[in-house]
Amino acid sequence: MMMKSFAIVLICYNRIGGIKRLLSSLENVDYDGRTDINLIFSIDNSGTNVVENFAKKYNWPYGPKTIRTFNERQGLKKHILQCGDYTEQYDIVVALEDDIYVSDSMYLYAYQAAEFYEDEDNVAGISLYSFQKNWLKWLLRFEPQHCEYDTYFLKVAQSWGQVWTNKKWKPFKLWLSNNPEFIKDNTIPQALNQWPESSWLKFHDRYCIEKGKYFVYPYVAVSTNCSDAGEHSKKTVTDHQVELMYGKKKYRFSQFSNQAIMYDEFMEREHLGKYLGLSDDELSVCLWGTRPNCTYKRYVLTIDDLPYEYVRKFGLFLRPAELNVMRGFEGKDIKLYDTSKARNEHYKNNDFLRYRYSIRSSDYRTLARFSIQMLSLAFGDIKRKIKR
Q1: pTM of the model as a whole
Q2: At what angle do helices 166-178 and 201-211 cross, to 10 degrees?
C-alpha cells in the first residue's frame, strides 16, 4: 500500500529560539524509516528576516524543505488558515506553532490516527496535545476516563499540535466562509465570546459545537506547549506543559459511537443518562460549573446547590468525577436535580469543593503556607513593575 504524503508545517513569526527547540524535537521523531517527510517553514512578516535566514541554512534530514514568506503581515488567524490549506497538497498535515515541542512518537500517532479516522465524518481533526487542566477553569484538573484504547473524543479543537486532512479541513473552511463573523452566544463556553477576533481557534471550536464534531485526543500527549513570551504573553510560563509519550509505535483507536468515551465543549462527560435511567436528551451534566444555566434541561447533574428537588446524590471520591455516578457511589457532593420541581432554596456555587478535589490534598496548613508564599511572590512582581 502506498504511504500517504506527510507534511509538517512550522508556523513561524520572529521567535528563533522556539523554532530551534521545536526542530531539535522533530529531528528525534521516529518517521518509520521514511525520507519523504515534507518540512514547511511558513513565516509571517515580522519586519525581520532572522527566521527566514535560519530556515535557508537549515538542513532537514528527512525529506524536502520548503520556505514560504509573506510580503505583508498576515496575523495569526489568517496565517493559520492558510497553513491548513496545505491539506490540498498533502494527505496528512501536522501544524506546529513555534512554542511547541514533540515526542519521538509524534509521527506514528499522527499517521495512524489520520488513517484510522479518515472517513469518520464526526471527527473534525486530531490533537497531538492532551489537556490535563479544564480549558475553561484552568485551576481545575481534567481527568478523562481511561479505557483499552489510546484516545478519546472531545468537542474542542486544538492549536498546540494538531493534525488535519483534506476531508476534515475542507468542511471547516466551507462552514467558515458562511460564518465569517463570530456572533456571541450565551449557550456556548463564555471564553469563546471573550477571545479576540484574531483567534482562529474560537471559530474552529464553534464549528465543532454547531456541527456536533469532535477532535481525537491522546490520553498521553505527543506534543506540549512551552508557552514562550511573545505576541500574546509577556513572560514564559510552564502552565501548559504536559507529560509526553515516548517510544510508542502502535496505537489503538476507538470507533466513534455512543459507547465511546467522549466529552463535550464544557469538558463534561457525555452519555451518562443510561447510568441514571434517563435519556441523554433530558439530562445536563455540569460537574465543573462551566455550563450556562440557560442550557439546563429537565435533569441537571452538578456539584452546585440548585433551587430544585434532588433525585439522587453521589459522592466525589473516585476519579474521574463521573465514575462516582457510573458506579452508583452514594454520597452528598454530586446531586441529580429535577428542575420541574422547585425548592425554596438559594443557588450556591460549590467551586471550593471542585478546587479541593482537583488539588488532591486536604492538608490545609501546607496549602495555606504555599498560598502565602505565592502571594508574596506576586506582590514582589508588582513592586518591581512599579519601580520600572
Answers
A1: 0.94
A2: 100
